[in-house]
Amino acid sequence: MNLKSDIEIAQNTKELPITEIAQKIDLQPEEIELYGNDKAKISWKGINRIKKNQKLGKLILVTSISPTPAGEGKSTITIGLGDAISNQLHKNTLIALREPSMGPVFGLKGGATGGGYAQIIPMEDINLHFTGDMHALTSAIDTLAALVDNYIYQDNSLKLDPNRILLKRGIDVNDRTLRKITIGQGSRFNGIEHEASFAITVANELMAILCLATDINDLKKRIGNILVGFSVKDEPVYVKDLGFEGAIAALLSTALKPNLVQTLEHTPAIVHGGPFANIAHGANSVIATNTALHLSDYVLTEAGFGADLGGQKFMDFVSNHLDKRPDAVVVVATVRALKYQAEESTDHLDKENIPALEKGFANLKRHMENMAHYGVPVMVLINKFASDTDQELSKLKELVQNDGFDCEVVSYHDEGSRGGIKAAEKVVELTGKASDFTPVYEPEDSVEDKIAKIAHKIYHAKDIEYSDKAKKQLAEIKKMGKDQLPVIIAKTQYSFTDKKKILGAPEDFTLHVKDLALKNGAGFIVVATGSILDMPGLPKHPAALDIDVDNNGKISGLF
């Protein structure tokens, strides 16, 4: 039994120079920008050359059941499966993942680079400062906010209403005290006093824009289209009206280039962008995934949280921006997490409980059937934990297969790529099957229809209830002619409903739409349901208490 921590395993692995990893995918030395010996950015010269390549690999989307405290291991499975296709099946493979946010790293979730013997490295760098992308985004977010406030202070020829500014400041830290603040207090010398707020960096529109932009010109255009707020005459004011898009794009020009790293088994991986799936669209950057598709035969990417969030958003929104749609979908499940869906406690998950597993299976059943409705081949990978009994694993396989889906048990965490060779073979085979992509909603559908179709078809809600605030915001969006944009639903990741404690696969509930926000630069409307926060708080025992560094600079406790 392996008793080493994830960071110990990562630190004991001999990395290949990133130049060798680049050679594996035919990147030339002049097409990468080195950040030390073990990470690099792909240069614009490389990106532009790669774009011209007509080759497009198979795209495999990895999603999961609803997350629980019991753990699912979606990133671990994505990495392990990629390693298996690369090193056991000897196929040209690239993994495309999101960058971690320091908020969860120091808060509740911990590290986000996989686990055990299925990790991307350098683990501590990726989880902390990496190549500076998150810092660049945070600086850009706050520079834009400062420029807007200065515009109001200095001139304000467009009569921008300080009390109707929609932009939020940003910080890559979980800090509940910044959810609502007042700025400009004191004399007028300190600016115009008004209420403001912070969102965690990954929830800001600029993160979404970074992940959707195809080049610097597109980045600049999208930044210019950000809705700043409204004038005292109720006219919308955009960033391009104020002329700040060039400066903000300049701050993000390096961050827009994707980052190249490797797995423990030296499979190339592109790690870039990190929007949360419960409050944003939950996928790595379009540039990263498209670059990977042109460089390799098989690309594995993941969607954040469960298939009702990241999976749905990837299918209905993100894939519209890629050079191709997914060829196959993998849904990750664990015996422990499904038992939790029934038991609603982690106290007894180490004990065999077939009835709880059977009851909890309803959650997996809902997710895999939802993904199948998109017309793309789907299979299930069961992430094996040491506490799982043979009877439980056999029963779960039986339940999945009886519902018409193939599945395999994998142990990538403990065994690396050898922990699921048959699974890798089946996934590769799955990518060759015919698909007939069918979205949940059509582009021409109204906002209300888009929300309704997701709520009914994916969540299985019976009714939708709009708050008075949401009704007013919807009317405003319609007035601006933006009511046919895609919708990104912000919802608790723990439940199909908007209430995190309702587990399993509930039906006939009411979805409560509390707030609508136009993200004009990103090109979607965020629909907030239930109680959802774009600035998380820290738990009673944050992960930061376990993180340390010694006098030689060796970091411990990340995960």
Can you give me a brief rundown of this structure?
By secondary structure, the protein is of the alpha/beta class.
Low-confidence spans: pLDDT under 50, at least 5 residues? none
CATH topology of the largest domain: Rossmann fold
- Rg is 23 Å
What is the structural class? Answer: alpha/beta
Shape: globular
Mean pLDDT across residues: 95
User: How many distinct beta strands?
Assistant: 25
User: How many independent structural domains?
Assistant: 3
Distance between the termini: 18 Å
CATH level-four homologous superfamily name of the largest domain = P-loop containing nucleotide triphosphate hydrolases
Largest sheet: 12 strands, mixed
Strand content: 15-25%
Specify the number of helices.
20
Helix content: 25-40%
- CATH architecture verdict of the largest domain: 3-Layer(aba) Sandwich
CATH classification class of the largest domain: Alpha Beta
